[in-house]
Design goal:
This protein has 172 residues and is an alpha+beta fold. It has two domains: 88 residues, Alpha-Beta Plaits, CATH 3.30.70.940; 74 residues, SH3 type barrels (Roll). Helix content is 16%, strand content 42%. The protein is built from three helices and 15 strands. The protein has a six-stranded antiparallel beta sheet with strand order 10-14-13-12-11-15, with helices on one face. Strands 1, 2, 5, 6 and 9 form a five-stranded antiparallel beta sheet that branches. Strands 3-4 form a two-stranded antiparallel sheet. A hairpin with an 8-residue loop joins strand 11 and strand 12.
Length: 172
């Protein structure tokens, strides 16, 4: 049963995120390549496009021993691994990304941050998510990401949606 398989990040060729996602789904695999609406400027015009939030990556859930069906997909470069071992992405990180996308709130790529206040969303469509709270000018953003890739995304919040996250302290 595929839903019990872990998620992996797959490196793909430049601008192949959506085609790889479609091809993986046509093979019966669960794949995800989140996008956002962004503008690109050419010399003669400005155009709004669907752009990848995690450029160069597609997330896919599959049994690792059957990885050849993923690696044989046109546009796929490799499965992200460290020290020769495939790097599984925690389900909670994928679920956070899916929740942000399904909320339809404006989201966009964001530089991955390690520092910042951890917050929990108390109200609204993102209720229950935890992430890093950032302030940009006069707006608040929640940053959620994939630590393995050191990539993140930000979603705009209202101040009344946020409360401090509970911090678990290890016994010393």
């Amino acid at each position: 049963m595929r839903e019990l398989c872990p998620w992996y990040a797959i490196t793909v060729k430049h601008q192949h995120e959506q085609s790889v996602r479609s091809l993986l789904e046509s093979k019966g695999l669960e794949a995800m390549a989140p996008t956002y609406r962004g503008c690109r400027r050419w010399s003669d015009r400005l155009k709004e496009l669907e752009l990848p939030i995690f450029g160069g990556y597609v997330f896919c859930r599959f049994p690792y021993p059957e990885r050849i069906q993923v690696l044989d997909t046109p546009g796929v470069v490799k499965v992200v691994s460290f020290g020769g071992k495939p790097a599984e992405i925690p389900d909670a990180e994928i679920a956070a990304i899916q929740t942000v996308i399904m909320s339809r709130l404006p989201a966009r790529p964001w530089p991955y941050l390690k520092l910042g206040d951890r917050v929990c969303i108390a109200r609204g469509p993102l209720r229950g998510l935890e992430g890093t709270l950032l302030r940009e000018k006069d707006r608040l953003h929640l940053v959620v990401g994939v630590e393995l890739l050191q990539r993140a995304m930000a979603v705009e919040l209202e101040v009344d949606m946020v409360e401090p996250a509970r911090v678990l302290r290890a016994a010393v």
